[in-house]
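B., you asked whether I could sanity-check this one before it goes into the benchmark set. Here's the sequence:
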Amino acid sequence: MSSLTTPHPFVPVLHSEWLKIRTLRSLLGALFALFAVTTAFSAMAGVSETSYPEFDPLFSALSGVTPGQIAAISFGAMAVSSEFHGGGLRLTPAGVPRRGRWFAAKLLAIAVPTLAVGLVAAFAALVAARAGLGAAASGLSAGEQVRGVVGCAVYLTLMALFAAGIAALLRSGVGALSLLIPFVLVVSFVIGDAAGGGVADFLPDRAGQTVLYENPDRAFGPWAGLGVTTLWTAAALAAGAWSVRRRDA
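And here's what the prediction gave me:
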């Protein structure tokens, strides 16, 4: 009978982590920025020039993901780094003896709201941009648009988790942001332009954004590209989990 009334040990930990996110204004602000920036920049792209040779209507409609991912990265990094302020992680074993369980709950508390906000933002961005693009986006099929919206939300979630893993590894949100934001805004583009594809296509951001193109000119298809980003994220989370479990706070 007790097994029917007693919650699984993971549930109260997850509830605690969700409460932390709900009560930290900086984290709620990052989620709001994710929605606002992604939607606004996509809407602006919808009224831009569409006659250049490499124009891709699906990516143009969802191009707000480029600045929007900064908010997702910030959300993931700050959600984890808040535990290291004032040695907060030292208090974790008192309530959650297994740090691995705490870290899993933290990641789920990051992933679910990012995915939810990402879906709403991607849908709103697509609707706003299509209104501006007009006939230029008329060739997009329903399947391509669904793939773009879902893929955009999954990509943003993966980038938030990628940042969470790096923040756990470095034990610093500032360190993670200082590494990842210049990378996705500058380094990745420079490497991509210099290499002209090839190895650069396997970078986490470039690979994942393949799912946002109607006709991706990459070494792999849309979902395979998202799979590459998943591998990068899994590696970062594994390194972060090792840091959380093996090193002192």
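One thing to flag: The chain has a mean pLDDT of 85. Otherwise nothing jumped out at me.
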